[in-house]
Design brief:
single chain, about 575 residues, Urease, subunit C, domain 1, Diaminopimelate Epimerase, Chain A, domain 1, seven-stranded mixed beta sheet, globular
Length: about 575
């Protein structure tokens, strides 16, 4: 039998219609702007979803062919649909402890706290506790305290209590403050040696000040505190999950698995809570190098699935620039005349010895390096790891990458490094960096997004929560505006401002790339998960600074609504 071309065309159309009928969409989103973050199709009229995945993106008329009797039509009513936002560097467990279990003293608004107001808050909290209980708090930041750079020393904290131990974590998580009772319980005195990788700060007369640096020093105090019950920890983690989805986040990293309870307990907790919906986001896990099992037989790179998966190892190479412990090649500007250049936690050989075995095992390596001296050390180590072209495709991460030089940026580009910026540095600490801590030249180098774009690099923005608040749209606003918070407000190096499109990439598709998930999330494309944020305003049509004011009204994961603003 011979078919005419017209008849053959009719049969093909009928066949296509039949295929579509069998594959009816579960839901179709329409009725508002759709920002896809797919450069091949930046906008669309509608998105069709089936079985938790996007099956078609395009015109409403075209997608109507996928509408069946049971298809749910989701009218955006003028709102904007975006891909679910990606948060590639969060301490989920750390945020749970710092903001939900400890007293949270964080203050990201103006005016700053004073030393007296902090003591008053701690004293009031202490009165709610029984004798012998630890007074634990988080969020003190001398660079955001009046008088500027005033610290909660042991003498100051003794005003809170001399009978109850006090432990207060700095906002950076690299510094802590304790009273004399806590020093006593930890068994420390003026002659106590520093632990490897940590410091007990002493004054000019060799006396302990109550200021301590880094996790190895913290552990002497944390080990004396009772561990909260599993129920309390899970409730705290669940609250962090609600914070994430309320800001449109559908995928997050836990950047230090094992840092609080050990790898086994935290792995089990994240595995359970992501699957039972109590932590309603996808999680990519990076094991904290200090907690990496001595004999690892239970964990392999890529273990898990897109709900929860272990993919990397995190190493902390230096401290915090606003805390004056980030390792710099030249001394800080504060205080005037100081010789302090911050702290390297390892020698270069020690850092290499930590990274090399994990790299050879196939883990994605993520190294925290804030200061330019630490960045140099990390790049030296990465150059030893990258010995063939395929090594440069492993997406080595440098966390924060705060004050790199142009030469260091070029080296990172050559090595295939995917940096992540705590872009809130430009906002919350921009004035302090520029005018006080490191000076104008180095201050202008903070989080140099535009320089990375010129080198063709991909990078991500993150909160490092609890270091700064979870709020990806604000990160995009900060990257595109770079306006610091303190009055009089100024732009921290206008030449490093980037377009809104590039800033949004840093919280969507490029953040997904950093997590090795760009084929599954980060843009609204066929075949990817139906992870969405529905916002009240199109960020592409909003002033860069005002993007931070956009509200997330709904968050969807896997085609299921997990958050709706009341």
């Amino acid at each position: 039998m011979k078919f005419s071309s017209k008849l053959l065309s009719t049969l093909l159309i009928a066949q296509c219609t039949f295929v579509f009928a069998k594959g009816n969409a579960d839901m179709i989103f329409y009725g508002g702007d759709i920002v896809t973050m797919n450069k091949s199709q930046p906008t669309a009229e509608a998105v069709a979803v089936q079985d938790g995945k996007i099956i078609q993106v395009g015109s409403l008329a075209k997608l109507k062919a996928l509408q069946g009797q049971d298809t749910k039509l989701v009218n955006l009513n003028g709102q904007t649909l975006m891909p679910g936002l990606v948060e590639p560097h969060v301490h989920i467990m750390g945020t749970a402890f710092s903001e939900e279990i400890f007293l949270d003293l964080s203050n990201f608004t103006m005016p700053h706290d004073t030393l007296d107001s902090l003591v008053a808050k701690l004293t009031a909290y202490a009165k709610t506790l029984k004798d012998g209980q630890w007074i634990t708090a988080f969020g003190v930041d001398p660079s955001r305290t009046d008088p500027f750079m005033s610290e909660l020393t042991a003498d100051v904290l003794d005003k809170v209590s001399t009978t109850k131990p006090v432990f207060v974590m700095n906002q950076s998580m690299h510094i802590a403050y304790v009273n004399h009772k806590a020093l006593e319980i930890a068994g420390l005195n003026d002659s106590s040696p520093n632990p490897k990788g940590g410091t007990f700060v002493k004054d000019s007369k060799g006396r302990l000040t109550g200021v301590i640096y880094e996790v190895p020093a913290f552990e002497l105090f944390l080990s004396k505190m009772p561990i909260p019950s599993q129920e309390i920890i899970e409730k705290a983690v669940a609250k962090v999950g609600q914070k994430l989805i309320s800001k449109g986040v559908t995928t997050s990293a836990e950047i230090t698995v094992g840092g609080y309870l050990g790898v086994d307990k935290e792995y089990a907790l994240f595995n359970t809570m992501t699957r039972n919906g109590k932590l309603p986001v996808r999680v990519r896990g990076y094991m904290y190098s200090n907690a990496y099992p001595t004999t690892n037989k239970n964990y392999k790179p890529g273990q898990g699935d897109d709900t929860f998966k272990l993919i990397g190892v995190k190493i902390v190479a230096d401290g915090s620039n606003q805390g004056l412990t980030g390792a710099m090649s030249k001394p800080y500007d504060y205080p005037v005349g100081t010789s302090n250049t911050g702290t390297l936690n390892f020698t270069e050989q020690e850092l290499y010895a930590l990274a090399k075995p994990r790299f050879d095992e196939g883990w994605q390596i993520s190294i925290h390096s804030n200061g330019d001296k630490s960045i140099e050390q990390t790049l030296n180590v990465y150059e030893k790891l990258v010995t063939k072209p395929s090594d440069a495709k492993t997406r080595l991460r440098i966390e924060h990458f705060t004050v790199p030089t142009e030469k260091q940026i070029s080296r990172a580009a050559k090595l295939g490094v995917v940096p992540g910026f705590t872009i809130g540095h430009t906002d919350y600490w921009g004035e302090a960096f520029h005018n006080h801590l490191i000076g104008a030249e180095r201050g202008d180098r903070i989080d140099p997004s535009a320089s990375l774009i010129k080198k063709g690099m991909r990078f991500a923005y993150h909160s490092d929560s609890p270091v700064s608040p979870i709020h990806p749209l604000k990160y995009a606003s900060e990257g595109a505006s770079r306006l610091w918070q303190v009055s009089p407000q100024k732009v921290l190096n206008p030449s490093q401002k980037i377009s809104i499109n590039h800033a949004l990439k840093a919280i969507t598709i490029d953040a997904a790339y950093q997590l090795k998930m760009e084929d599954k999330i980060g843009s609204i494309q066929e075949g990817k998960y139906a992870d969405f944020a529905i916002v009240n305003q199109n960020p592409m049509k909003t002033d860069a600074y005002k993007i931070r004011d956009i509200e997330v009204n709904e968050t969807w994961v896997n085609g299921q609504q997990v958050f709706k603003r009341k």
